[in-house]
Amino acid sequence: xxxxxxxxxSPWPERLKGALPVIGAAVAFWALASTLLYVLxxxxxxxxxxxxxxxxxxxxxxxxxxxxxRSHRFDRFKPALRWLLIGLIAIPVGYFLGHQFxxxxxxxxxxxxxxxxxxxxxxLFTVLAxxxxxxxxATRETLAREATARSEAQRLAVEAQLRLLRAQLDPHMLFxxxxxxxxxxxxxxxxxxSMIDQLIVYLRSALAAxxxxxxxxxxxFTQLRAYLDIMALRMGPRLSYRLDLPAALERTxxxxxxxxxxxxxxxxHGLEPKVGQGSxxxxxxxxxxxxxxxxxxxxxxxxxxEDGDRPELSAxxxxxxxxxxxVRDRLRVLYGHRARLYLERRDxxxxxxxxxxxT
Length: 359
What we know:
two-stranded antiparallel sheet, Heat Shock Protein 90, disordered N terminus, alpha+beta
């Protein structure tokens, strides 16, 4: 789950595999810089020797930037000042230390740079090229920060919609359930007590879910069980259900109340309009790279003109798709394109809402 505070965006990858493209780009950049300097200032050096010096200087400079960024010593400064300070350190260090690596690579004796009269053109050119490279990474970081800020704002907006949705739905369910309890008190005291108990469990879980960003999958199933017990008491023999959560997945963290709209949608648009008995199954299973949760019902199913296998399909009728669209929006904000929600037709009737959550 996303933390409440946005971490510092960085153009540098965290793992070696992700760093290979950055290193490759740096090698290509300094090879281009060597070629450009060789063409503009003929007779300065042989091209192979110039190439070795530029590659050593450039890669050493990049390594210095990486170390400074990972130290987080400059994080308190504004981005422009931070990159200026990093450049003032990385460019001279990369220039002088990179020359020593070049001497070693060329099997030449190491010596201090500048002990003899040298042209200022290579130095100025290296500083210019290093500044261009640093500006590139500074721009990438700025774009990454903006993208992270947009993602965080979108996540907060979706979570705010969730809380608003729960504030709208909970009183409606509460009033209907209390009306049922009132009628059961005189007819069946045991059923009335059972509904009150399940209503307490459900409302306590809903209140806790509205105050957190993630819950264990076992708590999500506990809330679903309380909700389905209440609906089973209201609908009587017309509703039966089954929840299947493997023990290995009980502690898996998921967004709170993610499955609730799927179950509500199955009852409202699948089972309640259907004549006769119906059932709901909520089954979780582990898959490579994540978990899959199926919310299946034996209700009316999808209209004939709707293709249930299309992942972009929101729900049954278009005007009742808010719940499923809300779930899809939350998955996209929290997990990106790695998460999925789609519908499948069941034989002979019914629909399965299939959620894949990456882990």
